[in-house]
Amino acid sequence: MRREIASALGIVLALLGIAGMAHAVKNAVDPANLPIGDGKYSTTAAQRGYVYLCHAQAGGGGATVQGPWIHDDGTWDSTAKAEVDGSVSWPTAYVSITKSGGTRTITSNDLPTNHTTGVFPIQPSDDAYQYDPNPGAIAASSRSWELPAKPKKGPPQCMGGEAGIAVNGVDIYNPLDALLRDANAHELQDHCDGHPNAHGYHYHSIPKCLYSGRSRKKPPVTVGFAYDGFPITSPFEDGERLTNADLDVCHGKTSKVKVDGKLKRTYHYVATREYPYVVGCFRGTQIAAGVPR
Q1: For FRET with 50, which of 38, 180, 192, 252 sits at 20 to 30 Å CA-CA?
Q2: Is residue 290 part of a domain?
Q3: Closest alpha carbon to 182 in 103, 99, 275, 107
Q4: Would you call 95 helix, strand, or coil by DSSP?
């Protein structure tokens, strides 16, 4: 009888192991074969894996040559992508995040307080130049936003080019370049996934520089705030990396996260390897005044 029980228990454990492996495989995202987000936007409705734009107007600029990290099958290899050279420090970088009543005030000069940047404009001697000769320069630029400190979740709202601001003071943009392509796949960034345009230094995704060293087993930590007041968090929860399959149409979910130094159950946007990377649309009922949409 004991052997039969042990055998049955072994079968159950094996099945549970297989189920766990299946779950891991199902949610696995290969950083060497990420689906490109070109064309994945809508001006009519929100949907998972897309950006819900208020307006879709292509401009100029951006990468001029397709890099070899972009595959013919519609994927790209983030592990093989060129990177802008350099390690420039910004000793005057500044950010202040305060909360008073129902308002969270964030002021910064758009320079990263916690990491160096690449050399911009991209130099002709940099191998990144042949793909993206970005002429933009990094400079201090004043920012001040008043966000809802206690945001309320509502129906999806469309967004413009800007999604929020990181806790290190850097702007967070939507995932598209000026040509409405996947900016992370096509454009060149530095070692912390940032680069400048005419308006300043910014991210199109959340770099590891904002959460490196944090245990995967700990609750997600706030790495920024969207302009509707909801936190933007690191990609790990319960020891696993979150993917689009775990998130809603706006690239978020409700769970316990660390915000303002405390664990709190709230809706939050999640940094992922997959497009749209950070925010797909706004779920808050109130958007900060002055945010271009």
Answers
A1: 192
A2: no
A3: 275
A4: strand
Q: How many CA atoms lie within 13 A of 120 on its CB side?
A: 25
Q: Indicate whether 14 and 73 sit together in one domain.
A: no
Full domain range(s) for residue 18: 1-29
Residue type, 142: S
What single-letter amino acid sits at 23? H
Per DSSP, 189 falls in state -
**Residue 52, domain member (yes or no):** yes
Beta pairing class for 236-237 and 240-241? antiparallel
Are 18 and 118 in the same domain?
A: no
Residues 204 and 245 in one domain: yes
User: Do 8 and 60 belong to one domain?
Assistant: no
Same domain flag for 22 and 57: no
- The confidence score (pLDDT) of residue 19 equals 41
Low-confidence ranges of the chain (pLDDT < 50): 1-26
- DSSP β-ladder status, 143-148 and 153-157: unpaired
| Residue 65 burial (10 A CB sphere; 0-12, 13-18, 19+) | exposed
Residues 6+ apart with CB under 8 A from 172: 162, 163, 164, 165, 166, 202, 203, 204, 206, 224, 226, 232, 278, 279
Which tens digit of pLDDT belongs to each residue from 13-40?
344 444 444 444 446 799 999 999 999 9
Report field, pTM of the whole predicted structure over 0.85: yes
Residues 6+ apart with CB under 8 A from 227: 145, 147, 162, 163, 164, 165, 282, 287, 288, 291
Distance CA 98, CA 172 (A): 19
| Torsion angle (degrees, nearest 10) of CA 286, 207, 141, 119 | -160
Q: What is the largest CA-CA distance in the chain?
A: 76
